[in-house]
Design a protein that fits this description.
Elements (H helix, E strand, L loop, with lengths): L1 E10 L2 E7 L3 E6 L6 H13 L20 E9 L4 E11 L3 H7 L13 E8 L2 E3 L10 E4 L11 H15 L1 H25 L8 H26 L3 H8 L6 E6 L10 H22 L10 E6 L2 E2 H4 L2 H23 L4 E5 L7 H12 L3 E6 L7 H6 E7 L2 E5 L2
Parallel strand pairs: 3-13, 3-14, 8-12, 12-13
Antiparallel strand pairs: 1-2, 1-4, 4-5, 5-6, 6-7, 9-10, 10-11, 14-15
Length: 398
């Protein structure tokens, strides 16, 4: 799979972009705040329609866009076919409905509240839902924050799992969305019960929903970690020069037994919620569920979060990201697009060389960097090079 053409309109600082792309390595360089990360953000949104860099779609719309509309249009070459994807994001402020009628987007815009955002998705010209994007394009993004995967927060490690699973499993994406809504509702209810404003029995229905969606999420996360462990040990060995092995351990907040079937899992999770209910009410928070899961990275059976050196932690993060790539390739039958966002300056020479060698073997890799002087002549000779200045991209030749 590779991205053959990308068009952006009023996306971040890109007013107009019309960019043909090819297989292999593409290097985008420029000073900070010129649009390098914005470019990869737009490409990553093709996978799930959500941004890894923004909390709201409104944030990706250029502040000076007259109609408060941003557009991504992409052509993707896959093994069996070609796909055209269009994502349009709109900031429903004053006058935006009129702007969308002009743009041919009429349905569902009447009565949109001020400050709301809307999104329209088309695949090969047909109107689609966000869930229909899953599997159309897959990307593996490696940003500087991913180097903190091992020593970062549990939320970072959950996000690592969720990004990959949401691109490969439509039902996982649906379950995760529904689960998050249940957690929000249940947390609010727990606080009201604690303050004697509601009956504790009101939790029964939400407990049923929580265990239903949690059961699916936990199962898929376990399967992904099992798949990662088929790759990461050898990757860690290769990167560390044979000195280290890696194992990733899934740590769910529920007690989980792989021998349980679906029905038994549900019963066990309900029982555990019941046992925790009094404590949850006292604290006013949900104490059990996938939103509290974590991962443990063991190098030579030593927990890297507690005892790992900075170099070991970064090697484990690299191994995990390449394990993610292998997992997604196996799950979809397609080679994911690899996006490397200015990570080379964060790595030492040995890890940088390993990452580059892997990137050169990939069907399509897009790299951003503040300059190209740190790349070898051999790498530069194989790369398509582009300079980004203030949201403008120029193809350069040396």
């Amino acid at each position: 799979m590779y991205l053959s053409h990308l068009k952006l309109n009023d996306f971040r600082n890109f007013k107009r972009l019309d960019l043909p792309l090819g297989r292999g390595l593409s290097l985008f360089y420029g000073e900070n705040a010129q649009g390098k990360t914005n470019l990869l953000e737009a490409i990553a949104m093709l996978a799930t329609s959500n941004s890894f860099h923004a909390t709201s779609d409104r944030e990706v719309i250029n502040w000076n866009a007259p109609d408060r509309i941003a557009r991504i249009v992409a052509e993707v070459e896959r093994r069996e076919d070609q796909t055209k994807i269009e994502i349009v994001m709109m900031d429903a402020k004053n006058g935006v409905a009129t702007a969308f009628v002009k743009d041919g987007i009429k349905d569902g815009m009447n009565g949109v509240p001020a400050g709301a955002s809307r999104k329209r998705i088309k695949i090969n010209g047909g109107q689609k839902k966000a869930v229909d994007l899953i599997g159309q394009v897959t990307v593996v993004l490696f940003a500087p924050t991913d180097l903190r995967l091992v020593d970062g927060s549990p939320e970072d490690r959950r996000r690592f799992l969720d990004r990959a699973l949401c691109q490969t499993q439509p039902h996982y994406c649906v379950a995760l969305t529904k689960y998050r809504k249940v957690i929000t509702q249940r947390s609010a209810l727990l606080k009201r019960i604690r303050d004697n404003q509601e009956d504790p029995r009101m939790l029964d229905f939400l407990d049923e929903k929580l265990t239903e969606w949690a059961n699916l999420i936990i199962y898929e996360r376990r399967c992904m970690v099992d798949a990662l462990n088929q790759h990461v040990d050898q990757l860690q060995t290769n990167i560390s020069g044979g000195r280290e092995g890696l194992r990733i351990v899934y740590r769910p907040s529920f007690v989980v037994d792989a021998a349980w079937g679906t029905i038994e899992s549900l019963e066990q999770y309900r029982r555990q919620l019941g046992e925790a209910r009094r404590k949850e009410i006292q604290q006013g928070v949900c104490l059990l569920g996938p939103h509290r899961d974590d991962l443990e990275f063991l190098v030579n059976d030593v927990d890297m979060l507690i005892y790992g050196s900075r170099g070991q932690q970064r090697t484990a993060a690299l191994s995990a990201k390449f394990g993610e790539l292998a997992f997604m390739r196996a799950a979809t039958g397609e080679e994911p697009i690899l996006l490397l966002d200015d990570v080379f300056s964060e790595l030492d020479v040995a890890r940088r060389e390993y990452l580059l060698n892997q990137a050169l073997q990939h069907e399509q890799t897009l790299i951003t960097s503040t300059d190209y002087s740190s790349f070898s002549e051999e790498v530069l000779a194989k790369a398509h090079r582009y300079q980004i200045v203030a949201g403008e991209i120029g193809h350069t030749h040396f």
